[in-house]
Amino acid sequence: MWDYSETVKEHFFNPRNAGAVAEANAIGEVGSLSCGDALRLTLKVDPDTETILDAGFQTFGCGSAIASSSALTEIIKGMTLDAALNVSNQDIADFLEGLPAEKMHCSVMGREALQAAVANYRGEVWKDDHEEGALICKCFAVDAVLIEDTIRANGLSTVEEVTNYTKAGGGCSACHEGVEEILTRVLAEQGKSFDPTAAPPPPAGKAKLTNLQRIRRIENAIEAIRPNLQRDHGDVELVDIDGKNIYVNMTGACSGCQMASTTLDGIQQRIVEDLGEFVRVMPAQAMGRPA
Do 40 and 1 form a contact (C-beta atoms < 8 A)? Predict the structure, then answer.
């Protein structure tokens, strides 16, 4: 379970500047409903001074997305566009007195929406689409440039951190190798080496789980999902845990089902949320694990 600051809760339950701004002359839209997060930022800008007179947001996403959007609009009102462009995703998180690591991508989305809105006001083309070959994570449409910029801006060093900040790798995990290649290159530029076995330290004040506690949380997450599968005459059983790799068997109607990969993604997401760390859930038989 994630720990939210009182400021995050306040901006979630009582968001500031929700809705579109009347007579807006700058609009920025990022994300998509298919990816689970979308944000539309509207600004009213003084044409003489380029000062942001008003800001509003409309978002589809989790509580952290709402809180981050609310915080962003509060931060930038009264700023010039140039000053606003210097607002980082970390500034948004700091304004909220911190965000869970797994929710930092919400602050990154806010920064992108601001960049898009400023470009819209100035008649410039701001693109979040991808040149051929530049798309790294197909599940969440995250390109190499965003990953590289986010690594540099936030001092990231692990795949798990990249997933927390950009969502890249949070779906099917097929892009992990691509993310690792980017980490290797960017860290080398900084005179550092990428360690694929490294994991980010637990948040301050939060103790690291023991192996037994970790196993029990994984088992409990699977048990919570099992009734839904059993209603459709399917089931899942835990086979093995090897570091961040979790091997399961899909049984009954789930065995060989065309939606099995989607089911595995749902199981993985539930375990990640309950465990508070990134893991991969894979079919045991396909990976040569004994049933």
Answer: no
Query: Which residues form the domain of 270?
Result: 211-283
Residues 11 and 115 reside in one and the same domain: yes
**Tens place of pLDDT for every residue, the chain, 291 residues?**
457 889 998 998 899 999 999 999 999 998 765 555 788 999 999 999 999 999 999 988 778 888 999 999 999 999 999 999 999 989 999 999 988 877 888 888 898 899 999 999 999 876 654 444 477 887 777 888 889 989 998 999 998 889 888 888 876 677 888 999 999 999 999 999 998 877 666 655 566 778 888 899 899 889 988 888 888 888 999 999 988 889 999 888 878 777 777 788 778 878 877 777 777 888 887 555 555
Burial of 90 (0-12, 13-18, 19+ CB in 10 A): middle
Q: Specify whether 106 is catalytic.
A: yes
Helix, coil or strand: residue 206: coil
| Options 35, 137, 139, 175, the catalytic residue | 35
Token code pair at residue 244: 């961040």
Number of domains in the chain: 3
Q: Which of 62, 106, 137, 257 is catalytic?
A: 106
pTM (2 d.p.): 0.63
* Residue 35 is a catalytic residue: yes
206 located within any domain: no
